[in-house]
Amino acid sequence: MRLPIEPRHVAPRLATGAFILNSGLSKRGVDEETAAQVHGMAKNTYPFLEKVQPAAFARLFSAGEITLGAALLLPAVPTVVAGAGLAAFSSALLGMYLRTPGMREEGSLRPTQEGLALAKDVWMLGVGVGFVVDELTRDRC
Predict the structure, then answer these.
(1) Each residue of 62-99: pLDDT tens digit?
(2) d(CA 95, CA 133)
(3) Closest by Cα among 95, 118, 15, 27 to 64
(4) Dmax of the chain from CA atoms?
(5) What is the SS3 assignment for 33?
(6) Which residues does residue 104 pair with via DSSP β-bridges, in sequence order?
């Protein structure tokens, strides 16, 4: 049985999957203050999240990261599916970077010291888009 993963995808799937899985696991059971901080930053960028309670948001965010991390680590999940999830997730994080005041230098895309934590997520967007493009064009090359 052939797995839906190419050897060239193993390293970036392991790196991104382990990183995201660890992040999700570290958010499990966070205290109320941490949940409020994570939720506050997200709802300032995405106002529809204001209706979600901070503790519930933190649980859902943690579960989402754990699910995405596991999908990237499990070779049975097709790379195009894992890549699409990674691209969507990192796009949302980069949206926070672009829309949150103080994350970027004035008039620039360059991150401030505060913005580095979100700006670095651009590498995940590149990996996710690369997976999707590679899979969709694989038989054409």
Answers:
(1) 999 999 999 999 999 999 999 999 999 999 999 999 99
(2) 21
(3) 27
(4) 53
(5) helix
(6) 111
